Amino acid sequence: MLRRCKLLVLILAVLLLSASCATEIAVRYMQPSEINMGSYRNLALASVVPYKGFVTSSGWIRTIDIGSAGILIRPSYSYDITNSVASYATDRIYSTLSSSGYYNILPPSSTDRIIHTSWDESREFRDMGYDAVMIPRIDAMNVDENIYSVQRSATEYDAYDHSYYTYYYYDYYIKQTASITYTISVIDTNTEKIIATRTFTDSRTNTESIDPDFPRFDKAELLFQRMIRSFDAGIIRLFVPTMHNYNVALMDNKPEIKELKDAYDAAKDGNTSYALDAFMAEWKRSQHVPSGFNAAVLTAALGDIDGAIAIAEDLSRYSSDRKVSALLTDLRRVKSYNEEAEKQLTAPPASAVVPDDMGPEYSVYDYLTR
pLDDT digits over 57-94, tens only? Predict the structure, then answer.
C-alpha cells in the first residue's frame, strides 16, 4: 500500500512538472474601451469639482471607551481637505489620461477658465477644436476618526518582598475610516448632451497605535489619495483602448512526432517563425492535431489573427478537443476586440452640429460644476 501511495505521488509530481514546463505564447491584442470615445479624442478636461457637503468633526477626536476617555487629540484634517483631495484627483486624472497617448487634452486650468467665464462654453470649445468636455466631481466624501484603548497586563518580580505582582495599563489606537464617491461626466460640445457618466466608490480604514502625549499618525487625506489612485485602472478601462496579452500554452506533442522537438524548442526560445513553419508543414502533411493547434497559436502571435482563425476552423473539423474549440472562440473574440478598438482609434471627430434648443437657463456645465 505504501509503495502504491509513493508511486501515485511520483506520477502527480511528474504531471505537475510537465504542465508547468508547457511553453506559453503571448498573442497581443487591443482591448476597446468600455465607452467609445473615438469621436471625442480632442478632449477638454475640467478640474475635479470638490465635494460641497463635507462636515468637519468637533475640536477633538472622539474617544469611544472608558480607557481612552479624557484623551484630547486634534483631528488630522480640516474643512480644506475637500479642496486638497479634489486638487490631487485633478492632477491624477490629467496624468492618467495624458500618459495614455490617446487624447489631445486641453489642461484643466484652461478648461476651467472657459467654463467659468465664457458666455458660450460649447462654442468656444468647438472653435478651439475640442469635441468633448470631461468634468469629474466628488459627489460624496466622509471621514471618521476615533480613539480607543486596549487594556494590557504585565507581571514583574518584586525583589524587596520576593514576590510577583501584576499591573495593568492601556495601549491606545486611532482608527480612521474614509469613503468617497467620484463621478466622471463627458459632455458633447456639439449637442451639449451628457454622453457618458460613470461613478467610482471606495472606502478605506487605517488603524495605528499612538502615544497620547506625543500623538503622531497619518493624515486622513492619505486614505483619500489611495482611493483616488485606485481609480486609475478603471478610468483607463472606461475611456482608453489598451494593449493586452492573450496567453495560451502550446499543445503537447501527443501522439509524439520526434521530428517536432526542434519546433517546440524554437517556440520556447522565441524563434516563432521557424516553429510556425515546422508545425504548419506537419499539420498539412499528417493532420497532426497538436501541430495544427500550435500553428494557429503562432500565426496569431505573429499578428495574423484571420490566418490563425482559418487554421483553427480547419482544425476544428478534424478534432473535437475542447482546447481546439476554446482556441477558436478566443481567437474570434480577439478579432472582435481588435476591430472594435480600431474603430475607436480611427473614428472621425464628432460632427459640428449647433443645437437649436439649449435646454434650461443654466448650462450643463453650470449643472455639473456648481
Answer: 778 888 888 878 888 888 888 889 999 999 999 999 99
pLDDT in tens, 168-193: 888 889 999 999 999 999 999 999 99
Q: What single string gives the DSSP state of each residue in 270-339?
A: T-HHHHHHHHHHHHHHH--HHHHHHHHHHHHHTT-HHHHHHHHHHHHTT---HHHHHHHHHHHHHHHHHH
pTM: predicted TM-score of the whole model, two decimal places: 0.83
Q: What is the DSSP letter of 99?
A: H
Decide: 240 and 232 in contact? Cβ < 8 Å: no
CB 267 within 8 A of CB 251: no
CA atoms within 13 A on the CB side of 288: 22
Q: Which ranges of the chain does DSSP label H, i.e. alpha helix? A: 2-20, 81-100, 108-117, 121-127, 221-230, 232-239, 261-269, 272-286, 289-301, 305-316, 322-346, 364-369
